[in-house]
């Protein structure tokens, strides 16, 4: 039970960080009018960085198998992100490749964060 609470707390922290970074990206978009490729790449980088921090945080809290905890955080975040997307957009990802890269960014960020913890 304690392990599930740790993952949920870390996922909430990752969500808050993601919201902050996407808000900053929105400000940059308003100012500089980036194209779609830059926006998509920036969002993937945000997913990676947020999950990197999440993996790092949970890796510091857990002293063994840190990369596994980071991976679990990344997977949990991706599931949460997909559920929110389903609720808001009334469907999952329209492009399977985009979903796959988002999943990879979340998992890789969590793993690397856990490894460096």
What is the compact description of this entry?
By secondary structure, the protein is mainly α.
Fold blueprint:
Layout: H1 2-32, H2 36-61, H3 66-89, H4 96-116
Keywords:
117 residues, mainly alpha
Low-confidence stretches: none
SSE sequence, one letter per element: HHHH
Mean pLDDT value? 92
Q: From the alpha-carbon coordinates, what is the Rg to the nearest angstrom?
A: 14 Å
Oligomer: single chain
User: Based on DSSP secondary structure assignment, what is the total number of beta strands?
Assistant: 0
Query: Helical element count?
Result: 4
The major pleated sheet works out as: none
User: What is the first-to-last residue Cα distance?
Assistant: 22 Å
Task: Report the sheet-strand fraction.
Answer: under 5%
| Helix-residue proportion | over 70%
Polypeptide structure, described:
Helix content is 87%, strand content 0%. The protein is mainly α and 117 residues long.
């Amino acid at each position: 039970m304690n392990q599930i609470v740790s993952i949920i707390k870390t996922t909430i922290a990752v969500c808050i960080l993601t919201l902050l970074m996407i808000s900053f990206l929105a400000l940059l978009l308003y100012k500089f009018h980036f194209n779609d490729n830059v926006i998509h790449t920036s969002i993937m980088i945000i997913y990676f960085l947020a999950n990197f921090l999440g993996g790092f945080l949970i890796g510091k809290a857990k002293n063994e198998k840190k990369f596994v905890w980071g991976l679990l955080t990344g997977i949990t975040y991706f599931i949460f992100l997909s559920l929110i997307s389903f609720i808001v957009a009334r469907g999952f990802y329209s492009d399977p490749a985009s979903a796959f890269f988002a999943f990879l960014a979340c998992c890789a960020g969590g793993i690397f964060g856990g490894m460096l913890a």
